[in-house]
Structure formats: C-alpha cells, structure tokens
From TrEMBL:
Keywords assigned by UniProt, alphabetized: Membrane, Oxidoreductase, Transmembrane, Transmembrane helix
GO molecular function: NADH dehydrogenase (ubiquinone) activity; NADH dehydrogenase activity
Name of this protein: NADH-quinone oxidoreductase subunit L
Topology with respect to the bilayer: Multi-pass membrane protein
Enzyme class: oxidoreductase
GO cellular component, as recorded: endomembrane system; membrane
Residue ranges of every copy of the NADH-Ubiquinone oxidoreductase (complex I) chain 5 N-terminal domain listed in the record: 69-119
InterPro entries: NADHpl_OxRdtase_5_subgr (IPR018393), ND/Mrp_TM (IPR001750), NU5C-like (IPR003945), Proton_antipo_N (IPR001516)
Domain NADH:quinone oxidoreductase/Mrp antiporter transmembrane intervals: 135-350
Subcellular location: Endomembrane system; Membrane
Catalytic activity, EC: 1.6.5.-
Segments passing through the bilayer: 6-25, 32-53, 86-106, 118-135, 141-160, 181-199, 219-235, 256-274, 286-307, 328-348
Length: 351
C-alpha cells in the first residue's frame, strides 16, 4: 500500500509545485516556463488519478493519515486521505477539467501581462480542490473549502484595475463567509459531540448522535449539524439565497468561469453533502430543507436566466439552475444521481 500512498500524495502536490514555481519564480522561468510547469503538474495529477481510479475499480480503497499536525483535547488534527469511488470520480473530474482549462489559457491569456500569476492561481486552485475532495477528516475538508474560496477571490478579481471585478470578488468572498460561518458551526458541533474530526469515527458514532437533542430546544442535534453543514454548501454551491455572488463572478477571465463556475468549486457543496450522507440520512428535517432550497434554486434561477442579456450571465444562471437540480437529488436521498449529474454537468458546462 505504501507505493499507492506516494501516488495519492502526488495528486495534490504536483499542481502545488507547479503553482509555487509559476508564482514565485514567474519572472525567471518566463511565460513558456510558467505554463509548462503548471500544465505538467496538473497532467501528472490527472495520470495519477487514472491509476488510482483503476486501483479503486479493482476493489482497493484507502482511508488513512498521511501527517499528524497536532493532538489537542483528545482530537487529532491531521492530513489524511479517503480514497473511494466518490473521491476518484471527483479527482478525475477536477484534474481533467483543470488540465483542459490550463491548456486553453495559453491562447486566451497570451496578451495578458499577468500570465504567470494566472497560471499560478489556477494550479493553486486545483491543489485546493484536490485537498478538499481527498480529505478523510473535517479539518482538511475545511482547509480545502477555505482555500478554494480564497483562490476564487483572487481569480474573480484577477483584472484588479476594473472596479466591477473588485466588487465581484468582494461579493463572492463575503457571501462565502456567510456560508462558511454555518459550515464551521456544523464542524464545531461534530467535534464537540462526536469527539473526533475523522469521517469514519464520526459516522461510526452517528447512531449515538441520532438520539441526542440540541440543548435548549426540541430539535434533534443531527438536524442542527446537517443544516449548519448545508449552509456551508449553500454558500459554496450558490444555492438560494446565497446565490448572488455567482452571476457577478463572471467578471474574471473566461477560463475561470469554466473552472470555478462549471466544474469544480461550485460542486464542492454537492460533494460535501454526498460525503456526509450518513449524517443527513438521520434527519428528515435536514433533507427536506435541502430539497426545498434546491427546488427554489432550480426553478427561479432558470426564470432569471431566461431574461438575461449577457451570455456569460446566462451561463451563470444555467449553472445555478443545474446546481439546484443536484441539490434536489441530494434532498431526495438520491446521492448517486446527484453525483452523476455533477460529473456530466462539469464536462458540458466547462465545454
């Protein structure tokens, strides 16, 4: 298994290495150097993901710690990977779409003075997203969650001389902060009541959590946890009423619209709910909440898309509507359907 662990590590670290080289040494390596190192990094990640996919298809899954950062109050803070069929599907989507976006960017940004910076950002984004989907614990999930938020802020405001871009990236950042506040409350409740941040341990204690009430109310604890987690997904996956940032975020360069708003970042919330399905299944109230929010989003964003004039905004509202469909599927406990639509949508919308 140790040889596979090296391949697992290669997947997020190759894009990170490309991002560091292009970002810190962009002037020395020049434009060609910047796109060569970043594309190479993402291509290595994609090929490694294919290997891992074949390994998982043969029935090998992995759930283990790679690095323990610290232990405090009986809770381990660690970097670990959980490799199963859901993870490899996301890894293939993220690395492949990112690779295509990197290649497309060579032509699209050829005249832009911020060429190396742009390549550094999109590689860093790929690293963040891979850390998010490969994590086996809530700490690393939250790290990836915040990192994609930060990099999307940098990318949406990439042309920082345009006032519209500055407003758009600030709006995206602030709306995501609202969602992330709910997300971290949910993680905090899990840490407090389950006494662990590891997915497997938390899901193992799900039966005990299901019997607890939330102190001071007649709600179930698991309902409160799931709704808090889903508020995080509402920010990231742009569900009503936290959807307002996504149409404005089209201010960034077009490759970003493909990467963030089609394939990878906006599906983080959908992925997270699918990953947390053992908890969501314990609470009908939380699933109903997910279903209603998704239905509102799917319907009204479709209406709003019809009346837009700007083609990039039409695409943004189309994405919102599709994300609403995925959320409805999650609320109806049809996780495989949601993830299937996530994959198909990633490819056709990026295209």
């Amino acid at each position: 298994m140790s040889d596979m662990k090296a391949i697992y590590l290669l997947v997020p670290l190759a894009p990170l290495a490309g991002a560091i080289l292009a970002g810190l040494f962009g002037k020395q390596i020049g434009r060609a150097g910047a796109h060569v190192v970043t594309i190479l990094g993402v291509a290595i990640a994609f090929v490694a993901s294919l290997f891992i996919y074949q390994d998982v298809a043969a029935g090998n899954t992995f759930n283990g710690t790679v690095y323990t950062w610290m232990q405090a109050g009986g809770i381990d803070f660690e970097v670990g990977f959980l490799i199963d069929s859901l993870t490899v599907m996301m890894m293939l989507v993220v690395t492949f779409v990112s690779l295509m976006v990197h290649i497309y960017t060579i032509g699209y940004m050829s005249e832009d003075p911020g060429y190396q910076r742009f390549f550094s950002y999109i590689s860093l984004f790929t690293f963040s997203m891979l850390m998010l989907v490969m994590s086996n614990n809530f700490l690393q999930l939250f790290f990836g969650w915040e990192a994609v938020g930060l990099v999307s802020y940098l990318l949406i405001g990439f042309w920082y001389k345009r006032p519209t871009a500055i407003f758009a990236n600030l709006k995206a950042f602030l709306v995501n902060r609202v969602g992330d506040f709910g997300f971290i409350l949910g993680i905090g409740l899990i840490a407090a009541y389950a006494g662990s941040l590891n997915y497997a341990e938390v899901f193992g204690k799900a039966g005990q959590l299901a019997g607890l009430g939330f102190p001071g109310t007649d709600w179930l604890l698991v309902t409160v946890i799931c709704i808090c987690l889903f508020i995080g997904a509402m920010g990231k996956s742009a569900q009503f009423p936290l959807h307002v940032w996504l149409p404005d975020s089209m201010e960034g360069p077009t490759p970003i619209s493909a990467l963030i708003h089609a394939a990878t970042m906006v599906t983080a919330g959908i992925f997270m709910v699918a990953r947390m399905s053992p908890l969501f299944e314990l609470s009908d109230a939380a699933l109903n909440f997910v279903l209603v929010i998704g239905a509102i989003t799917a319907l009204f964003m479709g209406f709003l898309g019809i009346i837009q004039n700007d083609i990039k905004r039409v695409v943004a509202y189309s994405t919102l509507s599709q994300l609403g469909y995925m959320t409805v599927a999650l609320g109806a406990s049809a996780y495989s359907v949601a993830v299937f639509h996530l994959m198909t949508h990633a490819f056709f919308k990026a295209l």
